[in-house]
Amino acid sequence: MIRAKTYADAKEQSHTNAELNWWIFMRVSGVVLVFLILGHLWMTYVSVSEKDATFTAVTAKLADPVWKLYDWLILVLSLLHGANGARYSIEDYVRSRPNRFWVKIIFYAVMAALFIFGSIGLFTLTPSFNK
């Protein structure tokens, strides 16, 4: 596990390229997520009046593939970012190697289920216009 603040320190501390790549991913995804979520909040709560924020309006917005991709990117990046952060915590606090293995298995299964259900919910949502 890398506990560095700079790239040079991280490169020195990393035992594998995968660990260094995850360290870089955490920094990049954190910055990207800030802008994606601020954009999502702007489009959801600021640019739309409260009376227009209905289920029909949301499904109409999500009829556009660009918005689905935008929301799916938020889903993927946030799950990967959170899962990697939780992996660090599991490594720190679960001392027994067999227990750590099972905690990780259960945790990754939950993360996979969240990804699958989130993707299904996002991509199967179809516009329903009131007549």
Describe the structure.
It is a multi-pass membrane protein. It is found in: Membrane. The protein has 131 residues and is an all-alpha fold. It has a single domain (7-123), classed as 3 helical TM bundles of succinate and fumarate reductases. The chain is built from 5 helices and no strands. Helix 2 packs across helix 4 (65-93) and helix 4 packs antiparallel against helix 5. The N and C termini lie far apart (57 Å).
Name the features:
mainly alpha, 3 helical TM bundles of succinate and fumarate reductases, 5 helices
Structure described in brief:
This protein has 131 residues and is mostly helical. The chain has helices at residues 7-13, 17-46, 55-61, 65-93, 97-123.
Taking pLDDT < 50 over at least 5 consecutive residues as the criterion, the unreliable ranges are none
Report the strand count.
0
Amount of helix: over 70%
Distance between the amino and carboxyl termini? 57 Å
Count, helices: 5
Give the helices and strands, then pairings.
Blueprint: H1 7-13, H2 17-46, H3 55-61, H4 65-93, H5 97-123
Helix pairs in contact: 2-4, 4-5
